[in-house]
Design a protein that fits this description.
This protein has about 230 residues and is an alpha+beta fold. The chain is built from 8 helices and 4 strands. It has helices at about 1-10, 15-40, 50-70, 70-85, 95-110, 115-135, 155-165, 200-210, and strands spanning about 145-150, 170-180, 185-195, 215-220. A hairpin with a 4-residue loop joins strand 2 and strand 3.
């Protein structure tokens, strides 16, 4: 049936049935895309407006493509109209941008009667999103900074780094300074680190506190921009 819709459709005299099929298809696939986003997102708060926008943009894209049809003049007019509109909302998360682009692609495919392409593309996209969600690409690793203090007589810089690295996948010394103490010379080192998967900051703190002569002055976790996968 979908293969014959493009033959029955006339851009000058739109068919109500084919237009309705296009809108329903775009809406259903948009809902499937929004459902996939919600189930695979790691955001704590539920982005209701973004979910609604993904569904609505599929319908808007399909409507625009249907309105333009095969007319070059309509296409140029639509470009001029859209250039007047200023979109002030910025999408900072790359993953959200990909989902929004997928919603637009679904609407465009439905608008040109590429229903098979829209369905297969949506299923492939959603399946890949779920696979990534349960794969190692989606596992978050703690990223942060630690500031330690140690005696020069007990520890050397390289030894301190090796002691901390036992629970870290990456570590880098960013700052080192000498502090004069009453008993002996002390050093303070600040390290940027990325913990191994499954390791928490509390475990790292406990591990360092078990090392004699090594004290933790500051331990903080930095925000990870890739934790929404």
């Amino acid at each position: 049936m979908f293969d014959t819709l493009s033959l029955e459709y006339n851009t000058e005299f739109p068919n109500l049935f084919t237009f309705a099929i296009t809108m329903v298809s775009a809406m259903v696939l948009g809902i499937l895309l929004a459902f996939t986003y919600e189930r695979t997102s790691r955001e704590i708060s539920r982005p209701i407006h973004f979910l609604q926008a993904m569904i609505l943009i599929t319908i808007v894209s399909a409507t625009v493509i249907q309105a333009i049809g095969d007319s070059v003049a309509r296409g140029l007019g639509m470009i001029g109209t859209l250039s007047i509109i200023r979109f002030r909302s910025s999408i900072k998360d790359t993953r959200n941008l990909v989902f929004m682009f997928a919603a637009i692609a679904i609407g465009v495919a439905c608008g040109v009667f590429g229903f098979l392409i829209a369905i297969v593309g949506t299923v492939a996209f959603c399946t890949t999103a779920f696979l990534l969600h349960f794969s190692s690409f989606s596992q978050r690793a703690m990223v942060g900074k630690i500031k330690v203090e140690y005696l020069d007589t007990q520890w050397k810089g390289a030894e301190v780094e090796r002691a901390i690295k036992k629970l870290c996948s990456r570590i880098r010394l960013t700052k080192k300074q000498a502090v004069t103490g009453k008993e002996a010379l002390k050093f303070q080192g600040t390290f940027e680190l990325k913990l191994k998967r499954g390791v928490e900051l509390g475990q790292l703190l406990e591990h360092i506190q078990q090392q004699p002569g090594l004290a933790v002055l500051k331990l903080e976790q930095e925000s990870d921009n890739y934790n929404n996968i």
